[in-house]
Q: What sequence folds into this?
């Protein structure tokens, strides 16, 4: 996966092509389309069809029903703000990567019990940022993190320089990509 | 509910009338009586009987047994420092509002799975305050929060000005009410 | 238990005697040997045999399988970075103290439901330190904490002066003990 995972909120289905083209143009080959909006499901279908070379997943998936819908729409990975055991089980069964948000040692241990070793860390800037990730890595050397929240050009390199970082997530990458594309 | 939820710790049953009168006099029509003290159960009974116009609930309810006792005493809502699935189920069955404390995305997702969309956020000042609540609101736009811990006259308005805040909790409202009443 | 719990990472079995002798010499009669390293199990066996007067436990135990192995090796107490219900049940059955890491009110309530009233608080420096422990103690007066992470000579006394602290954990005690021993 790309080291930057753009969190894409699509409010109108018609924006889908524009936003994904902008990301591609910006050198980002993946997108986490959030399941928060009414058109998210259709946007994923459209994105998967029109950008088959990109790695399209669904974000903000908070329960089993949304997970089933996201996978049916073609999502190639699933992200949740927190950890859902039922979503984890569906993804395991269908062999789709699941990145649940885990911020406490207990939550990370639950992820490990479910066979998950890469977790989202959200909201990263609130819960201690890179310092927290390094502290959590001591007892969990096998875990990689996807910090999300408050990450932008100012701290991106610092995050990515840590070998515990699988990738970083954020909506700022979308804004940057759009800015560059619309120039 | 009132936008201010006073967390009332009653150490002697005889204090009940005085404290609730002070709250009423201060313009607060509800009270969360904590289940931490030996006389809490009797205090709730007394408060419900003597102040039928007030909205009396039980706080610091940490297990099913306490929840049953609090409801039997007449509590009209239940608050926990964290989330208890068994307390949630009892409250749902009896159609009583339950406000569990949730501070991580995983805990909020568990509350949503139980049909709960208003959660306590405790200790608010430790876990990022309003900044954390705003960050958590991005993936959880349907959730309202009751921040509790470290809230007083200095930051009350700031909290209440955010549309994600259902109400704020705290013992400071009790102290203020008593001060005004005892003058 | 000693008020200082040294978190001991043993990379080579041959280090075991030297490290434990250093701790004893430094006045520390217990050791939490982490289950992170390949030789951890053998190190616990060796430590229990060679230092029968010391209180030897296993740390970083993250699942039932590791717990069974640690107990079979002779561990007298079990520590986890987070809370594992399955580890808690094994320890209860075998009557061995279990100190799970709990940082949110929900996690503390889960520990209480399992009959646990002493919890690890990790990473302490990231999640609010002593201020957090004091805030959490308001609704949980029955709970004692073992803060771990970022504790050293600079803040040890401050932590230990709080009556909510059962003990403090850290690798810094090992470093100090080795320094004193190797002089």
A:
């Amino acid at each position: 996966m790309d080291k930057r995972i753009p969190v894409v909120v699509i409010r109108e289905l018609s924006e889908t092509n524009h936003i994904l083209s902008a990301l591609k143009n910006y050198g980002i080959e993946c997108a986490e389309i959030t399941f928060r909006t009414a058109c998210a499901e259709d946007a994923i279908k459209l994105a998967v069809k029109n950008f088959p070379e990109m790695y399209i997943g669904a974000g903000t998936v908070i329960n089993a029903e949304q997970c089933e819908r996201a996978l049916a729409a073609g999502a190639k990975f699933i992200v949740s703000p927190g950890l859902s055991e039922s979503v984890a089980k569906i993804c395991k069964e269908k062999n789709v990567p699941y990145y649940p948000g885990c911020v406490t040692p207990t939550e990370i241990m639950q992820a490990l019990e479910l066979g998950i070793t890469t977790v989202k860390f959200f909201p990263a800037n609130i819960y201690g940022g890179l310092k927290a990730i390094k502290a959590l890595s001591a007892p969990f050397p096998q875990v990689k993190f996807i910090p999300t929240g408050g990450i932008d050009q100012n701290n991106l390199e610092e995050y990515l320089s840590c070998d515990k970082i699988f990738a970083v997530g954020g909506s700022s990458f979308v804004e940057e990509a759009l800015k560059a594309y619309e120039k």
About this structure: Residues 44 and 127 of chain A are 30 Å apart (CA to CA). The interface with chain C takes residues 104-110, 112-113, 127-128, 131-132, 135-136, 139-141 of chain A (CB under 8 Å). Chain A has a mean pLDDT of 96. The first helix of chain A runs from residue 16 to 25.
